[in-house]
Amino acid sequence: QAFGNARTSENNNSSRFGKFIQLNYLESGVIRGAVIEKYLLEKSRLVSRDKTERNYHVFYYLLMGTTRDEQEDVSLVKAARLLLPQPGTSDLLSHIALPALRCFLLLPP
């Protein structure tokens, strides 16, 4: 979820994937099975978003769980201005920091 979910104005953990759902039926009309295929990631969120929303969770996990040198190595320092709460919002960094750090510790090395 860290790589495809983001906070929106309606949901704190909203999937930003497009999904194709295929239902398979028996001739009698009973559902036989289903397939859910993820096929799209909301790329526009990478460079812009509404003031009340956040970017993908993984970026905050990386910001909170890495050193400044590590952030510079992967160009996170420049990206931080797009990731951190924008002026005029009631969303403070402290509301992001601790949960993000906890989640970062769960990411594989």
TrEMBL record:
PROSITE patterns: MYOSIN_MOTOR
Keywords attached to this entry: Actin-binding, ATP-binding, Cytoplasm, Motor protein, Myosin, Nucleotide-binding
Keyword set includes Cytoplasm: yes
Cross-referenced InterPro entries: Kinesin_motor_dom_sf, Myo9, Myosin_head_motor_dom-like, P-loop_NTPase
Domain of life from the UniProt record: Eukaryota
Location of the Myosin motor domain: 1-109
Cited Pfam families: Myosin_head
Family (UniProt): Belongs to the TRAFAC class myosin-kinesin ATPase superfamily. Myosin family.
Identification of the protein by name: (spotted green pufferfish) hypothetical protein
Organism in which the protein naturally occurs: Tetraodon nigroviridis (Spotted green pufferfish)
